[in-house]
Amino acid sequence: MKTSRIAAALLIALAPGSFATTAVAQSGTDDPMTAMARARFKEGVDFYDKGEYDQARASFLQAYALKKHPAVLLNLAWSCVKSGHALEGKKYFDQFLAEGKDITDKQRADANDGLAQAKAKLARIEIQATSGTDVTIDGDHVGTAPLSDAVVVEAGAHTVKFKGPDGATDTQSVSVLGGQKAVAKFPQTASAGGAAIPPAATSAPSSPAPSSEPAATSPSDQSAKPADAPKEAPPAHKSTLLLPPNNLVPAIAFGAVAVAGFGTGIAFGAIKGSAQSNADSVAAQIQQNGGGAGTCVSPIAKFASACNAYTSDLNDVNQDATLANIGLGVGVAGLLGFVIYWVVADKDTSTALQSVPMVTPMVGVGRTTSGLSLSGHF
Prior knowledge:
alpha+beta, 8 helices, elongated
């Protein structure tokens, strides 16, 4: 069924004549409250169609505060479930089914499916405490022990506070996934003459029953919607040192500097070796022709050309050695920057450490390859 047709029908339902509480029906026009409710409802439909479920929930809440119409309540419940407020969505689905007088079979089936999806996302906390113990979860008083059933909560971490009949108190942090049940036990269960309550085993995760109806795509489409599978908690990491940083650009830049520096150092080192070989060859020729160690200090005409070549080669050796040392220094600096950034940079620890890439420099000798080596395990 088209979203625009349903939205139009529900907007018409927000007319003054649809409510027994309307005191005065203005001829041909809506009263201000209805006009505002209609505007907020249309706004909520637009947000939902865009996938902006939190904004849709806020708009439907405002519309329902202005006009408590079942059509608004059903859309509000779906927006809550889609925006991660499953417990709130369950409340509105229950309210819609309890208060709806003229709802259609299609609407009732849609609400029941939404209720099942909301329950599948929720978790439960079983309370074990001495009779008369006041129990508070996340600041809300949920009752006095013994509680008839486990307390339904949103999946995630919760703070449970106990206050025993003798005044003893305790606070516990409980984390539970959607579809699972956790146990919160007051350590003073044997005080004040009460019998100790044995610990109950935590039930295994339960899977919601599959829906027999097709899924819907908008808040005003009254067909059934698919249940979102509960998310599994990511595995804990033993160490974050090897995890890649959130921003790899600086690491890549440092790696490039390291590669360029080591490559330059190796290249000029090879050139220096060639220049040194040339100088040694000229010196050997001078010695073969009667020259000695001091021949090129004050060269005679016989050795002038050879001494000039020898001096030029020695200058090349010194220059190439300097450039090679500078290149190696830059490479070392780039490598240190890479390692330091990799260790101290912000990292995402919510994902499993399934594959950790390792980037290490490779420095060759002579004609061997230089650069970065990328390795990992899968």
